[in-house]
Write a structure and sequence with these properties.
Layout lengths: L5 H25 L14 H12 L3 H11 L4 H12 L16 H9 L3 H12 L3 H16 L1
């Protein structure tokens, strides 16, 4: 049918075999491609403040449980978040959740007795240090008391 000599026939079969084996290997490898994009653990400042209170009270494990339940994250993520809070750092809050002018939300937190949540909010949204955020929150508290 093809009029190939024995050497060309063997080489042709070997080439076809290599193509088949290569295609199978490529297809198997192609099915296992994974793309991973790390996402920050967005956590409401109110939850962070509650967890931080527990950490300050020496109840680190309870803080991890609270973060796992209320922030709806995995155990390892909750542990990472609790360690971050213990170091004095914050997790980012959800973007676009708060208005540009934080006076209203801070005043509401203060009225509800959540001074720490107000400070965490200001630190997160304005990228201020702890001392700067406390000064800002206290100035609003004094302004409302007058």
């Amino acid at each position: 049918m093809f009029d190939l000599d024995p050497v060309k026939s063997i080489l042709s079969l070997a080439l076809i075999g290599l193509i088949v084996v290569g295609a199978r290997a490529w297809r198997q490898r192609g099915n296992r491609v994974r793309i991973s994009i790390p996402m920050p653990l967005f956590t409401p400042v109110e939850i962070q403040a509650k967890a931080h209170d527990l950490i300050e009270a020496g109840q680190f494990d309870e803080a991890v449980k609270l973060l796992k339940k209320e922030a709806e994250v995995s155990g390892p993520d909750a542990l990472h978040m609790a360690r971050t809070l213990r170091r004095g750092e914050l997790m980012p809050d959800f973007p676009g959740r708060w208005p540009e002018d934080l006076t209203g939300p801070v005043t509401e937190f203060l009225a509800e007795g959540q001074r720490k949540a107000a400070i965490f909010l200001v630190r997160d949204q304005k990228q201020l240090s702890l001392a700067e955020a406390e000064t800002f929150v206290d100035s609003l508290a004094r302004g409302n008391a007058e």
